[in-house]
Amino acid sequence: MPRFAANISLLFAELPYLDRFRAAADAGFKAVEILFPYDIAAKETRRALMANGLDLVLINAPPPNYTGGQPGYAAVPGGEGRFQSDIRRVLRYAEALKPGLIHVMAGYASGADAQDCIVRNLQWAADFAPHQQFTLEPLNPVSQPGYFLNDYDLAAACLDRIDRPNVGLQFDSFHARMIHGDAQAVWDRLRDRIVHIQIGSAPDRSEPGRDETDFPALFAAIDDSGYDGWVSAEYTPSTRRTEASLHWMR
Ligand SMILES: O=C(O)C(=O)[C@H](O)CO
Ligand SMILES: [Mg+2]
């Protein structure tokens, strides 16, 4: 079985933020990811990670997309200054929290200018922080209408042009199924570029096992491929308590 991590921005959300770390550890997770850790001092998050023996897999670069504003600026022409200050900010958090990965969000944009922009911006970030691994993730257009990276093949084309070893693809079975209909086919096609995996069922982004994706087969393919990163549960449990949604892990 792959190594599973809990995205505690969505899992254990029935608990206050600092209590989710213990709940994840008690449920058997050895690592967590946090979408936007910026509302709380990094030292508080660090203490909670250490107290519960948890690795931090991933954080997103700011700005938080739950405010209704731009979900990132990487592909937004004219937003380069803001992009660079957001990257500097996430790197300050990364210094304290040591996440394995930073997910950089593209923002609302379209067209050739936006693609040129995301290529330049990610090359800048990759060269500015050569020891940090960054990811790009396509988000499906139902959940994020207008988001630039809305297709896995578009993301692969951008990664070809960015051409940096520390920028890779974040595969999410929920978005892959929403966008392309078959999450396993996306995994099979793009496996060589994938540096991080997230899982959930479409269309309601609930726990694995509630759509037609054959998760045991996907987990077997992940194991067979030699992927040695984390597989993060990033879903909204269909159950009142997160623990009751974790049958897919066992
Ligand atoms: O929406 C997703 O799937 C993500 O992983 C993003 O990081 C959301 O911010
Ligand atoms: Mg995701």
Architecture overview:
The structure is a single chain. The protein has 250 residues and is α/β, with parallel strands linked by helices. The protein has a single domain, classed as TIM Barrel, CATH 3.20.20.150. It contains 8 helices and 8 strands; from the N terminus they run E-H-E-H-E-H-E-H-E-H-E-H-H-E-H-E. Strands 1-2-3-4-5-6-7-8 form an 8-stranded parallel β-barrel, surrounded by 6 helices. Strand 3, helix 3 and strand 4 form a beta-alpha-beta unit. Helix 3 runs parallel beside helix 4 and helix 4 (112-128) crosses helix 5 (152-162). The longest helix is centred in the middle third of the chain and has 18 residues, at 80-97. The N and C termini lie close together (9 Å).
Summarize the structure.
With 250 residues, the protein is of the alpha/beta class. The chain has helices at 20-26, 42-51, 80-97, 112-128, 152-162, 173-180, 183-190, 215-225; strands spanning 3-7, 31-34, 55-60, 101-103, 133-136, 167-172, 194-199, 230-233. Pfam families: AP_endonuc_2.
